Amino acid sequence: MMSGTHFSKTIFKIFHDFRVFCEEQNKWPTFGAVVSVVTDFSFANIHAIFRACNKTNSMEYLDLTYKIASDEVDHPKDLVTKHLCCAHLMKNFSKGINDCFTDNEVREFYKDIMASVMNMDFFSDIEDCSQSLCVLLFSPVMNKIVREHLDMLLNSKNADPIDLDIYRFSRV
Questions:
Q1: Helices (H), 25-172
Q2: Distance CA 129, CA 145 (A)
Q3: How many CB atoms lie within 10 A of CB 43?
Q4: pTM of the prediction?
Q5: What is the dihedral of CA 56, 59, 63, 69, to 10 degrees?
Q6: Which domain, by its residues, includes 143?
Q7: Higher-pLDDT residue of 149, 8
Q8: Which residue among 2, 51, 101, 153 is buried most deeply as judged by most CB within 10 Å?
Q9: Are residues 39 and 111 in the same domain?
Q10: Residue range 50-68: average pLDDT?
């Protein structure tokens, strides 16, 4: 443990001091490599990393990373990227799916889709699957548009067709 408190200000100080030390040694970005920090969903950690490492706030960082991912701008060589821990992300997603659906087949379907999204290489594929996933999760009834998104997700993971009645009626 590096600190006795879990406040953004305290965590910021630790990261800021590390950055200043590296800059004094002409080692920022750290050792000339693209730097990535992996954390859980702690706002204090996330906010402190953005402020200390990139001298930005959360919204500015998200805007920049979207532009980088969609090839609107180049990746700045001194940008410290922030990654959410996959285990934490899947745990939170799985808990939400388990809370919303009663049928295990439907639960596994959504978890498989999320795992597929996390393993995709191209931003356009991630964007398409994420959009379809949101359409399915937020649509209360099956219709033509929802069916198209469901088919796209099934095709993206080469899955067997899913029972539409289970999809429609298994919500908690």
A1: 43-54, 58-69, 86-100, 104-118, 123-138, 144-156, 164-169
A2: 14
A3: 9
A4: 0.64
A5: 90
A6: 87-169
A7: 149
A8: 153
A9: no
A10: 91
